[in-house]
Design a protein that fits this description.
The chain has seven helices and no strands. The protein has 185 residues and is mainly alpha-helical. It has one domain (24-165).
Length: 185
């Protein structure tokens, strides 16, 4: 970038950098939106815990791929896949909590879930920045994706009951859980 923009018409302008950055930020959201509007199939999934693990592995693989590609359409596609996998994981995590946790603990566990969802990525941002400062952005992104895959596989191994977590038959059939009686009636 030592040469002037006038001598090198291929150098991106500030406007094209801003447009590219906007696309990169929007791609995971677009994938998440696609995942959210197409979740009708999730009720047919029996092993919800395993599906969470698979979604996390897909997210990690997409982020790893994103860190390795140098072509914008591929990068955007991989970020969209990551966003889709993230929303699928979130749907199943919330479903497991809502259907498996006793009423007396559900609020507390949802609070923990929200803390993890809100705080976890910010801790990851700090880690990514430290790795990027020490080893470069490619190593930071790729190692983060690979660490996510490794973490999911380790948790699957350490928590076999989670990977065997099954949806109740009523939910898989679409009937849903029995309605709770209204306390006022």
């Amino acid at each position: 970038m030592a040469c002037s923009a006038g001598r090198s018409p291929t150098l991106p302008t500030a406007a094209s950098w801003a447009r590219t950055l906007g696309l990169l930020y929007a791609a995971p959201g677009a994938g998440a939106l696609l995942g959210a509007v197409t979740t009708g199939w999730v009720r047919r999934i029996r092993r919800q815990g395993r599906t969470v693990i698979v979604a996390v592995i897909v997210w990690g693989a997409a982020i790893t791929g994103f860190g390795l590609v140098h072509w914008l359409p591929a990068a955007l596609t991989l970020l969209a896949v990551a966003g889709l996998a993230d929303v699928i994981s979130a749907v199943f995590r919330n479903t497991i909590i809502q259907l498996s946790v006793p009423d007396a603990l559900r609020g507390r566990l949802m609070g923990v879930q929200m803390a993890v969802v809100t705080g976890g990525p910010r801790i990851g941002d700090a880690e990514s920045g430290a790795v990027a400062a020490a080893f470069g952005t490619t190593v930071s992104v790729v190692s983060g994706g690979l660490a996510c895959i490794a973490g999911a596989l380790i948790l699957a191994r350490l928590l076999p009951a989670f990977t065997r977590q099954k949806a109740p038959a009523a939910v898989r059939s679409g009937a849903g859980p029995a309605p709770v009686a209204d306390a006022a009636s």
